[in-house]
């Protein structure tokens, strides 16, 4: 926690709104005036096309920013077809457009980023060599990753003026790799929300529907990358904070296991709570971005800089699925319903599509039988609440009110629930820990596959619904938290979009609990058309490489099915 | 904790001595009468030669048990030159000799082990193939590693009758690998002593001098393996429990980092204390045994059975020192003195010998500058004592007294100290955790080496002295605990033996503290002649493979120097 910066706490207490407004004004002033665009009419809720149509970006800048495959961008940078200054400028302009539409940024530092890009261009011109595997690539960072000389505010009024005197280890490695950190992105106050709003920088909006949340807590990254305002971003995840915005914004992400990517030096909430640790991971419009980031950081031997990172570099043989039939037939299990909350119709359709796509290319798909899911979810929530909110209150005290709801209109909106979760839970007796018995359960699927192995991965929703109106994402982590608690490596991949033509409401089922009923009633396909629908691919602990490899297989199968559909 | 097995606790309370004596009697009855030897006279303190001279072992059995290189034994088993029944019988007989001399065993199960050996022999005869990389090899296990159908008493009267209904994961994997678990070995009550004595099985003695302790807590393994009663044993280490007995008994061992070898299902002390975790590791008379065990377990993918094990198999490239100049010139740093307690003269001589040996074959040796050593030691001790001894008391309550001293004669012997450790410690302010700043400190040695790298490993004492009379090993972990607290992988290797001709007492120095003065005064080279002297080689966290690879280099350098000496 940064030190108190002002002595007169009482004065500040009354001034917090002004203090936040001053800081927000500084941010606005950092936008180059020539990058200010004319905003679309308020009635236009989907702003995904604005960058293409607003006239700020040149043809080349549109080409650069709409190059989804990160490897292609890196190749062009390496061959000096595009300079880093060109690429960084293009993404910066688009990020500033995204900022004006969705309010996704915190720190803006155009000169510093372009100075870095220029140095990299000069190095390449002079030596003929790239600095590292991410040479010249602009990378956006969630507002936890400290950079020397910049503030890290992380959604707290108290932290205004919290200038870092060194880079966190991730940023140090990104520099070694030749990257260009170029913006930092918005988070919710406390980090522990599935939406993105705080008193300093305000609320981040979903570019598919500005009335909707991009999710959280890495929601600034979600909105920014969805708008192609960054080719690659870094967020964090303790209960779904990478996967929720990736699902709500149509992105790829990877939630790695605890000890693989270096968190040291980054700011965080709930420091000292180590039962379920926050992890950092990449977010991108392409799976290549996810792979390239993960491989670059692991190849840089992060354990030399962060003693909590395990000594294991990128395992190419695991990426090539050495433990999963070496690229032969795989068997996936689909978690249609975790027995706690039933997914909305678009999620169900996404799972049906994925099953068909995988079977069409020769893989096997069976049903996943949930195991201790509710118990694990509840235990995780208990761990997150173990300090009784002390950390949050301590950061807010004397500076600003603690945010109690993400609803834009009221402190207790119509969908707020005050009944407790799942009144009737009766614990079953288990002789093994959840980690052990869940692994046993997974291994036992061997008897149901034709591969001679347990199922290679689980495919599941990340959230039971797609993006929702601000304030309504209150029960988001039933499907994500399993992986945090058991430390399973997992990805999120986009599958489709909500389509009112086919996503009819399901008939009511016998509700598992109050929340299940609430979520069932939330669904109205007319509210959600066009929202992205994504799914998780869940692998074993520390199986990052194989999770990426298997997600590639799933994504290719989905692409192939879509092509067949287009042709027919 | 196993359940109470008897309802009448009060009755048991008065009967604990009888209860323990009954269990000890059962153990004695399990020794085949034809393996009972005539004991040497009481005045003979060094019993290392008894197995060779007592007449129980045939020529072949002596050849088998004195084959120190585990690879050679495995090769002969694979080629059926020796059957597993022959090898197991030979080591079992020698283990029973060791038991009669040093009281090193707990569980004895001759028929079961020979039955297993017979099955393996039949499998090999029938299929021509070995079952796994440890085919036919007898392996001894510290009395924590549960085996189905056997008791795990772990030094507690309460745990008598605690039969396991399944194998722990380590044993499961050892069976997969073709090993023959054949005895279990003694531990101290509570496991948290550097000596080995409990009320059920009594005290384990050091075969180099029966009046001395073999160390602890893996002291049963130490005495057994020193007598060649087992080719390979498995112990555990939370503060030095592998390295202390290895040092006091002249063995090799490896203390791996926390998450590499599977502890799941084994019994342990202080369950729930996860700040500094106990780890398991191999003990052997040869480094080949250490390597073969570690590789076999890692190659078996232990993470599939124990979710707390990291997903990283044996890394052959790290063993080949890919991150340490690939087998070229290395730079070691010697920790001559950690600034807390000064090592005894034989330890100093061992370090001088090692430095000379390494320099003679072209490696570099510089001085290690201790960093936060006392602070780390004290914090570790605080963690170990964090439950105020509740765990120990709970296990003893109603069954037996908690052991307060390892002294054989009295509850407060002449060397007991009641003054606190290091009265004058003043903490220095650090902005980084001990893990981070110790890693920084290590990395900064790059400026003092000629290799372009930080020092490749640290060479240090494990204990400031060699084996001592029973009850006197009260301050043993000043040098070992550093590695537990920082989770550095490290080995222990034997260097020499105490030699009164050259190991003159050092002149008194300005004592760092009370313990340092006490340890200085403990030294009397006439007391210790012939005791083994070993050192630690300390590598980075999770650097097991490189630690083994570098220890091989050190051991070969020492061998080469000894050969030169013998020739000259």
TrEMBL record, chains A, B:
Residues 87-547 form the Amidase domain. Substrate binds at residues 191, 217, 238-241. Coiled coil: none annotated. The keyword Hydrolase applies. Keywords: Hydrolase. PROSITE patterns: AMIDASES. It catalyses: a monocarboxylic acid amide + H2O = a monocarboxylate + NH4(+). Signal peptide: none annotated. It is an enzyme of class 3 (hydrolase). Transmembrane segments: none annotated. This is amidase.
